Amino acid sequence: MITDQTHAHPVDNAFGAFVTRINDHFSALTGPIFETNAAGMFDAYLDACEDPAERQKRTCSCCRQFIERFGGLVTVGDDGQLVPALWDIEDAPDPYRGALGALQRKVRRASITKPFLSSEAVFGKPEKGGWHHFAVKSGKIFAGNGLDNAFQAACARREAFDSVLRALDEYTPSTCATALRLLKDDSLANSEAALGQAQFLVDLHAARDAVDGQQAKDNIVYRMVATAPTGFCHPRSSMIATLLDDIAAGKSFEEAAASWAAKMHPLRYLRPQAAPTEGAIKAAEAAFEKLGAGTALQRRYGTMADILETIWQPGIQEKQEAKGGLFSSIIPKGVGAHAASMMAPATVMTLEKFRRTVLPTADKIEMAAPAGRTSFVALTSAVHADARPILQWDHDQKRNPVAWYIYHGGSSASDFNLSGSFYDVTAITAPPHAWLGQVHPQHGDGIVLLLKNARDLNKCGGHSAIFPSCLKGEFHGFRSTIEAYSKTNSLGGFGEDNVAGLLLSKGDQYQVTLRVTSGDQVSEYRLDRWD
Known about the structure:
Layout: H1 10-27, E1 34-36, H2 41-47, H3 52-58, H4 61-70, E2 74-76, E3 82-84, H5 94-108, E4 112-115, E5 122-124, E6 127-128, E7 131-132, E8 135-137, H6 150-170, H7 173-184, H8 192-209, H9 214-227, H10 240-248, H11 253-263, H12 278-291, E9 299-301, E10 347-349, H13 351-357, E11 364-368, E12 376-382, E13 403-406, E14 422-429, E15 446-451, H14 479-488, E16 500-505, E17 509-518, E18 521-529
Parallel strand pairs: 10-18
Antiparallel strand pairs: 1-4, 2-3, 5-8, 6-7, 9-12, 11-14, 11-17, 12-13, 12-16, 14-15, 15-16, 17-18
Helix pairs in contact: 2-5, 6-9, 7-8, 7-10, 8-9, 10-11
């Protein structure tokens, strides 16, 4: 407590300057903030004051509450040492330098207890009863996912820290590095799903080994866990444990790859293998009501209006006005006829080269009918445009409720309403998870050739095509109920305006022939791989 608005004196002015410097420093913090077990903070603040009268002025319940609640907050430096979140300032006014040093020493000797998250806009009470007190404005207001409050989210991160520490103790740096190499080499099926987590474990080992002292090592882990995707923070219960266990056990690559492939099977990975219990259904009902997501699971087939980005669309061909009369189609003597476009055999090239060299000038693209079953894909979207976002790439600020589905083992052209030898490409787009600058490497890279009249005649087997691997983290606890819903509710909006086509994924081998018209020239290209 310090200044009275009508009776200020030099020491009171110093307090205002002190609080301003604390606010400036706190608002400039960019990394995660943590709570500690620092105790006796307010006593340290008072004990640093030798003037009994000034000490009495500082004895304030509002300031006590602030210092005891927020005074122990810290960030973690690159060396793993704790840095006071409030008191790490060098230009404190003279009357408060002693108190500042005492508070710094208290905090630096403390240990982290959990991440600090708060939905409050201001910490402390800036003014009460005409007196000013310690208070800072929050630069990071906890928004949450609608299910957990700030305290629950912080406790969950505390548990994640323990889980990561156990994994680091169990899996050596060498084991984690081997897993990362195998995943980067595309030696394993659907490697993108675990690549980020493997890199996270390797980075954790490296960062921890770069600092001295067990507490500093733990602090570094805390800092990295605080900002990591939730799915990265429980290695022992995630898919990557399968690979790490096999590497640690000294199994052959063939054995490890077979085990990995079995668990990463599209019909098993993150897919519930049993019907939800009655309790699980009730919990999901309560959660969706709390989230206001009652309409979010209602899905329909996508249309061209849902496509937010395209890589290519057909060129606009201007119609030439007919000239002349009855015999205008006859070519006069001496005027050469237009030479027919000479067709060479199809040029074999990678998809990347095709995008660089052919696509920019292509006016029209046709895809040759594929032989056998292949990766035809259908796009879906939300029935209600204002429904709560449930997909990882759909956000309130940037809405994108479009998803896709593909059949395991592929589909025939006739399954997708296609017949004949060539199909018009109406647009080329990236998969929906890559639109609007989104980056979701766990879902892979690819492009989709949207085809005229393509639509899934099997109607997804009567399902809604909602898959746990695409959902936001807050819905993962209810994935068995969500999948059961998907299996018993069909997609709406089936019709001629549906968008569907062929998915070409990075890492796959292709046998795709495209006939491209540029101006009055026609060429054929056979795409065999991504790059």
